Amino acid sequence: MERAIDLKLPNILTEIMNSVYSNINNFPPTQIFNEGWLLRIFLECHHRGHASFPFERMKNSEWFSETQLPTPFKTRFRGDRQSEKRTHIDGAYGQFRIHSDTKSGFVLIQDATQFEIIEAKIFSPLSTGVKNDSNYDQAARTVACMAKTIEESRIKIDNLKSIGFYITAPQSQIKHDIFEEKIKKDNIKKKVLARTHSYIEDKTHYTKLEKWYEDYFLPTLEAIKIALLPYEEMINNMKNIDQVTKEQINQYYENCLKYNRTRSRKD
Predict the structure, then answer these.
(1) How high is the pLDDT of residue 267?
(2) What is the pLDDT of residue 130?
(3) How far apart (Å, rounded) are the C-alpha atoms in residues 228 and 53?
(4) Structure confidence at residue 105 (pLDDT)
(5) What pTM did the predictor assign?
(6) Which of 194, 162, 131, 134 has its CA nearest to residue 61?
(7) Where do the structural domains in the chain lie, given as residue ranges?
(8) Nearest C-alpha neighbor of 151 from the set 84, 89, 74, 81
(9) Residues facing residue 91 across a β-bridge
(10) Which of 50, 52, 79, 227 stands the most exposed, by the fewest C-beta atoms within 10 Å?
(11) Residues 154-161: contacts with CB within 8 Å, 24+ apart?
């Protein structure tokens, strides 16, 4: 009879990770202290009932990080200069599954009622555009890809009781107003419309994009909640969490600020 194996991270791995707090630097601290791991902490805290985010924890909702959403402007033919790849997403929360034939392809389940996307930042802006369209920025692209995800998942937007796009960032960064204009719905609408109109010479494809724009993008834009979330407020607003854990999270966040501020200055 085979002995059951207690699967867990090797102690040596956790020791290496904790060495970041010592004077021994065997790897860059930003490998541990970064927005990716910070977001995972907040997502898990929210899932455990500590309310890190301004949306409910709906039945059967889960979280996932480092996923991708489909684009409405995918490649039509080899060498298509107008196309773009699937968009990278820092975090997702809702009822979904990952495509079995990909590592991170994302699709909503048929009875989904929640679809939240989170973009995590620490001293970095939203990207300004894609290779083939410098005005099609990250906020517009994310909302467009959310609408495409809803279409490909064959979900009725009215069935989604909660749909949101959130940007998490330090309060000091939010105060500089580098996000405000880009996340306004009118600006997102204009940029996605312009991106759609750029295909007007391809009549067949343009007709399909127009239908997607009217049937999925506009309803998604109308229903979606878009907000900036300062990390400081997210920590302060946590509930049903012991003080020691809350302080550990706050200290981890302070280290994220410390090491990423240094990195951003070097860049």
Answers:
(1) 45
(2) 80
(3) 11
(4) 76
(5) 0.92
(6) 162
(7) 27-72+83-266
(8) 74
(9) 65, 118
(10) 79
(11) 154/110, 155/108, 155/110, 155/112, 157/216, 157/219, 157/220, 157/223, 159/111, 159/112, 159/113, 160/112, 160/113, 160/114, 160/115, 160/223, 161/58, 161/113, 161/114
Compute the distance between CA of residue 20 and CA of residue 260 in angstroms, rounded to an integer: 14
CB atoms within 10 A of CB 17: 13
Amino acid at 33: F
What residue ranges of the chain have pLDDT lower than 70? Answer: 1-6, 100-104, 262-267
Only one residue has tokens 């699709």, namely: 107
Tokens 């773009």 found at: 84
Residue 230 dihedral angles phi and psi, to the nearest 5°? -70, 135
**pLDDT per residue as tens digits for the range 66-80:** 999 999 999 899 988
Give tens-digit pLDDT for 78-113. Answer: 988 888 989 999 999 999 998 766 555 799 999 999
Residue 6 confidence (pLDDT)? 66
Strands (E) in 95-235, as ranges, are: 96-98, 106-108, 114-120, 162-169, 225-230
Output the CA–CA distances (angstroms, integers) from residue 199 to 119, 160, 195, 208, 221, in the order listed.
28, 30, 8, 10, 21
Amino acid at 103: K
**Pairing of the two strands 162-169 and 225-230:** parallel
